[in-house]
Design goal:
The chain is 43% helix and 18% strand. By secondary structure, it is an alpha+beta fold. It has a two-stranded antiparallel ribbon. The longest helix is centred in the last third of the chain and has 18 residues, at 56-73. It is flat, with a radius of gyration of 16 Å.
Length: 74
């Protein structure tokens, strides 16, 4: 979490803080930057539920953003 909290890139959601809470069950709490458009999983599920598919340009844009963030991490 320490490494992730130092990343600064447009394709990576920033992490401001992280901590563990003891109580059954123990949990990891992460305070992250607000993602105005939501997360990718929610977007995919909403499209599937509505019976809509992603257009090719949308897929390419999302894929490029993912690869750009991954390349920054490496």
């Amino acid at each position: 979490m320490d490494i992730l909290s130092h990343l600064s890139h447009p394709s990576i959601t920033r992490i401001f803080a992280a901590w563990r809470e003891a109580g059954p069950p123990p949990t990891l709490q992460i305070l992250m930057e607000y993602a105005d458009g939501g997360d990718l999983q929610t977007l995919i599920r909403a499209r599937a539920k509505a019976g809509q598919r992603f257009a090719e340009p949308e897929v390419l844009r999302l894929f490029a953003q993912s690869l750009d963030g991954l390349a920054y991490c490496h």
